[in-house]
Amino acid sequence: MENNSQRRRSQQQQPADFAYGHIQPQAPEVEKAVLGALMIDKNAYVEVCDLLKPESFYEPRNQFVYEAIMKLSMDESPVDVLTVTDKLMKMGKLEEIGGPGYIVDLSSRVVTSANIEYHANVVAEKYLARQMIHYVSVIGKKTFDETYDIKDVVQEAESTLFELSQKNMKKEYSVLCPIVDKAIDMVKLAHSNQGGITGISSGINALDDVTCGWQNSDLVIIAARPAMGKTAFALSLAKNIAGNQKIPVAFFSLEMSDVQLTNRLISNACMIEGQKLLSGQLDRADWLRLDKKLDILKEAPLYIDDTEGLSVMELRTKARRLVREHGVKLIMIDYLQLMTANGMKYNSRQEEVSLISRSLKGLAKELNIPVLALSQLNRGVESREGAEGKRPHLSDLRESGAIEQDADMVIFLHRPEYYGILMSSDGLIDYKDKAEVIISKHRKGATGIIVTKFLGQYTRFEDFEENSMENRPPTEGGLYSEEEIDPFKLAAIDGYRGGY
Fold first, then answer.
1. Of 125, 383, 455, 461, which one has the fewest beta carbons inside 10 Å?
2. What is the pLDDT of residue 2?
3. 160, 109, 110, 126: which is closest to 53 by C-alpha?
């Protein structure tokens, strides 16, 4: 008879986790019912084709039978006992499944295909459960392996769960009638909005006139050569959207730190030269503007992430969290070529950039918000001559043609003044302190060139409106008179300046 000490030793020797002793989720009889129904009803396959794949079946021979049925259906050939048997023979799998007798046995199991969708869902759910067990096992092993960064493992787990849910989700069709009603509602909404803006306003009226705002699920590429003002343009948009409109924006900066970006935002919003902010040599007019405009930034729902070498997987994880927790309505990335594709190895950089581009488009669709990604251009622009030659083209997008293909809109920034071109060829536009915003691809609307004002010293793009209050250049008294500032704040400003 076993004593207590022997029992304790026996219990200690048993593994703590009995998961590997479980039988894999499966439903062999239901699998056979599905295959039998497919062979007695020629229309049954369309009911299950988006739910099931050969690997959805647990038994290998059932996988081969379904593969044969799938191939016959795709060729629009009849599906029955004879055709499936013949197809399996041509595939070299007939004897492996047990011969013609197994096909006959499958077809004799059901008399109707009425329940095939229900049975197919059972098979699909068992397959999903097996996938979950496999991935949990993989993630568990990596968790115990100290050679893996635990943060990467967490991101992989989240990404894998999302991928599983997407792959195993049946896409439902939509009837046209309610879609028409929805489209008309959007037209009515656009009509009621001033200027016909249906998306998120950029804050640059001339740009909104063409784009109708940044649209949900769109991937917008903003590309330029160095020194054209890509980051200044992005920050101007971020300030307009998050600062002026109070719409939550996420800004992923792979090049600059959060403090550097914030200094540029202060320069943009307060119209204080960046060099003055860097040196701290602000005069009284600067302090007045700083005091008047800084609250716009303090109250802005702008979320900055300055993680270097951000991967697509990490971006997706952070973006989902920002949308869920802070209601972010627009994502900006500065810039695309500095991202990585999950640390995997690729045959070429072009292949990696292509994956990044596709992933950004997928993220925009998943979250149903606009994603604006900055991108570099290749050096082809520099080698071309003349005013027209310096203007970027779609073929100038750096490292991958997939960027053009995946984008819903491609915008180029071009400053002729940078190349010594001070006047347009028709003599109508003085290019001093001007920039061209070139919409070269626009799936939902027109293309064209928009001329904006570019104030480089303030890292600022704005509408080409000479007489607006916002655009008045700073004077000795600043944009605001002293009467507009609280006298106690004026005294504090003077006292603070006295410390220099």
1. 383
2. 47
3. 126
B/e letters for 48-66, b = 16+ CB within 10 Å, e = fewer, are beebbbeebbbeebbbbbb
pLDDT in tens, 480-489: 444 444 444 4
* DSSP β-ladder status, 448-455 and 460-462: antiparallel
pLDDT in tens, 349-390: 777 788 888 888 888 988 899 999 998 887 777 777 766 667
Q: What is the pTM assigned to this prediction?
A: 0.61
End-to-end CA distance of the chain: 91
Query: Which H, E and C letters describe the chain, residue by residue?
Result: CCCHHHHHHHHHHCCCCCHHHCCCCCCHHHHHHHHHHHHHCCCCHHHHCCCCCHHHCCCHHHHHHHHHHHHHHHCCCCCCHHHHHHHHHHHCCHHHHCCHHHHHHHHCCCCCCCCHHHHHHHHHHHHHHHHHHHHHHHHHHHHHCCCCCHHHHHHHHHHHHHHHHHHCCCCCCCCHHHHHHHHHHHHHHHHHCHHHCCCECCCCHHHHHHHCCECCCCEEEEEECCCCCHHHHHHHHHHHHHHHCCCCEEEEECCCCHHHHHHHHHHHHHCCCHHHHHHCCCCHHHHHHHHHHHHHHHCCCEEEECCCCCEHHHHHHHHHHHHHHHCCCEEEEECHHHCECCCCCCCCHHHHHHHHHHHHHHHHHHHCCCEEEEEEECCHHHHCCHHHHCCCCHHHECCCCHHHHHCCEEEEEECHHHHCCCECCCCCCECCCEEEEEEEEECCCCCEEEEEEEEHHHCEEECCCCCCHHHCCCCCCCCCCHHHCCHHHHHHHHHHHCCC
Token digits for 461? Answer: 């793009």
Tally of CB atoms within 10 A around 85: 21
The angle formed by the CA atoms of residues 302, 304 and 310, to the nearest 5 degrees, is 145
Q: Which residues pair with 75 in a beta bridge?
A: none
Give the integer Cα–Cα distance in Å for 186 and 191.
Answer: 9
| Amino acid at site 320 | R
Q: Say whether pLDDT at 328 is over 90.
A: yes
